[in-house]
Amino acid sequence: MSNITKFIIKRRTKDESWDVRKLVTDVKLTTDMNYSAGELDFNLIEVNDGFSVHNGDIVIFNWNHNKTFFGYIFNYELNKGGSFKVTAYDKMRYLKSTDSIMFPVSTLGQRFNTICNFLEVKHKVMANPNHKLKSEIADDKTYFSMLQSAIDKTRRATGEHFFLRDNYGTIELRKYPHYQIKFILGDKSLVTDYTFSRSIENTANVIKVVKTSEIKGKKKVTTVKSVGKGAKKHQKKSTKTITTKEGKKIFTKSAEGGTVEKWGKLVYTKNITSKTNAAQMKQEAQNLLKQKNKQENQLKISAIGNVYLQAGNSVMVKIKDLSQIGVGTKKYLIKKAIHNFGDKYTVDLELRI
């Protein structure tokens, strides 16, 4: 694996390090935008005298002189013959820890800084929205879930998309796509295989927002029917009150026409707090319908490896066969990338359609 230009394992608390470039095999790096740490898996085929792998050891990996991974060993297996199978994660692994934090009114960037400062990890805000988030208590949640909540609320308020990424030992808050890759992935450029799929497994075109009424014995049912694509542009609304023992208030919004006719009724129900008023219930139902009333498209590509093909970057894709199903040449966001380093360096990508 001659393109490994640096592969060092070093102790965290001692001035000891080992160059294992010639000892590693099956090196695989996974980056994913779905709130998970970068993961480096590799094997050590033999070990120098006086050296063995320890959890917490630092791993530094460069491919073809590119700074590729900086992280720590979290798991290893010793196999017969003295070889090791090792898993290391970048610094985002520490965001899996749980905590309870009271956040004041603050921006996404400020909350990111608060968490990283507490964890004492190197970090940087690459892009920071001005939007102020309401104060809230995050009780017994992972730091990932706290930041995901802040990112989602910022996106809904501003339309801006942010994500987290470890950049060779520095956790960064980035706006995506972070980097537009300049080359094209396609039939005649790097791509060796691909699959494209469409699914309605997680689709919903009827949304029910349910609230327990403060007045026992009454249930209010409100139904709004909105037209899906391909039908006439009009809406039908109906409201009725039913007396029950449960004392619940239900708001329903459905996409009639288009998707209901094509796919049938696919219902999603969400229970909300009693503090939510009717207008907020309607808005929540409308937001969920917009989010869920669509097919899930997935494009997976296998290609000749390139270190710039990382989760959070975007790349132009041009595949002739995809144009036959209405997917033309365009930029796609890389959601997940699995790099397999070796004599034949390859990468497997999941792209957001």
From TrEMBL:
<feature type="domain" description="YqbQ/XkdQ">
    <location>
        <begin position="245"/>
        <end position="352"/>
    </location>
</feature>
<feature type="domain" description="YqbQ/XkdQ">
    <location>
        <begin position="27"/>
        <end position="225"/>
    </location>
</feature>
<keyword id="KW-0614">Plasmid</keyword>
<dbReference type="Pfam" id="PF24032">
    <property type="entry name" value="YQBQ"/>
</dbReference>
<protein>
    <recommendedName>
        <fullName>YqbQ/XkdQ domain-containing protein</fullName>
    </recommendedName>
</protein>
<keyword id="KW-0175">Coiled coil</keyword>
<feature type="coiled-coil region">
    <location>
        <begin position="275"/>
        <end position="302"/>
    </location>
</feature>
<dbReference type="InterPro" id="IPR056937">
    <property type="entry name" value="YqbQ/XkdQ"/>
</dbReference>
